Amino acid sequence: MTIETSNLHIRQFSKHEHLARAGDPQRVVYKVQEGWACRYSVIPDGRRQITAIFLPGDFCEPQWLLAGKAQLPIIAITPMTVTEIPLENIYGQPGKGVQDLLGAMLEAFNRQTDWIVSLGRKSAKARVRDFLLELHRRLKVSGHVSAHRCTIPLTQQDMADVLGLTAVHLNRVLMDLRKSGAISLRGKTLSLGRNERGQTEPATSGGPHMSLQPAREPMLA
Questions:
Q1: Predicted TM-score (pTM) of this structure
Q2: What span, in angstroms and rounded, lies between the C-alpha atoms of 85 and 96?
Q3: Is pLDDT of 126 > 60?
Q4: What is the 3-state secondary structure (H, E, C) of the chain?
C-alpha cells in the first residue's frame, strides 16, 4: 500500500461492534490491520445475507471515498485493529492514495461479481469450496497461512449467511469435503488437500478474486 499511514489514528473495535451503520456519514476509510469484519443486509423476514468479508490488509470500504456514507452496516466478527485514513488525506495524495483506493474498489468489484455467479449458478459444494479457497488465498497474501493451514473465525451460521445456505446444509457439505480429502475445517482451522493447494496462489493479473472458468458463448433459445 502506498497511502501514507504514519501518524494516523489506530482504532480498536470489539467483537460484534459496528464499524459503520447504514446511512452513517463516513469521513475515513479503514485499513484492517488485525481481525475480521463483514458487511451484511437483513431482509424483512429477519434472515441475514453477508455481502462482504474484510480481512487483514483490506480497505473498508473503498467506495466511501465516492459515496461519503455507508450503504450497509459493517460489524466486527472478531476484535479488530484498524488504521483510520481520513478522506482528505487520500484526496491530498492524488498520485498514490486515489490509485490505491481505485485498485481496492476494482478488486472488491471482481470479487463481488464472482460471488454473484457462485450464488446464482454453482452447486452448494462448489460454493463452499470456492469460498474457503478464496479466504485461504487472501489470508496467504497477508501472511496468515502456515503449512497450508489458517484460522477461519466464522461460525457455520456466518458461512451459511455468506453462501445462501442453511446451517444444516452447510454442515453436510463441509462433511463431504472433509471425507473427499479436498478441504478440512475442524473447529476454526482450515486445511487444504494436496490438489487444492495450488489453487490459492496469488493472482498475477486482473486483481485477486475467486476464479471462474473461462467465459463461454451463451446458448440462445
A1: 0.82
A2: 13
A3: yes
A4: CCCCCCCCEEEEECCCCEEECCCCECCEEEEEEECCEEEEEECCCCCEEEEEEECCCCEECCCHHHHCECCCCEEECCCEEEEEEEHHHHHCCCCCHHHHHHHHHHHHHHHHHHHHHHHHHCCHHHHHHHHHHHHHHHHHHCCCCECCEEECCCCHHHHHHHHCCCHHHHHHHHHHHHHHCCEEEECCEEEECHHHHHHHCCCCCCCCCCCCCCCCCCCCC
Q: Which residues of 62-74 are buried (b: 16+ CB within 10 A; e: fewer)?
A: bbbbeeeebbbbb
Q: Which CATH number is 123-200's, of 1.10.3720.10, 2.50.20.10, 1.10.10.10, 1.10.10.1020?
A: 1.10.10.10
What is the predicted pLDDT for the residue at 105? 82
Give the pLDDT confidence score for residue 118 in this predicted structure. 85
Q: Specify the CATH number for 9-110; select among 3.10.20.310, 2.60.120.10, 2.30.40.10, 2.60.40.180.
A: 2.60.120.10
Q: How big is the chain, counted in residues?
A: 221
Per-domain boundaries in the chain: 9-110, 123-200
As given in the structure block, the three cell numbers for residue 130 are 470456492
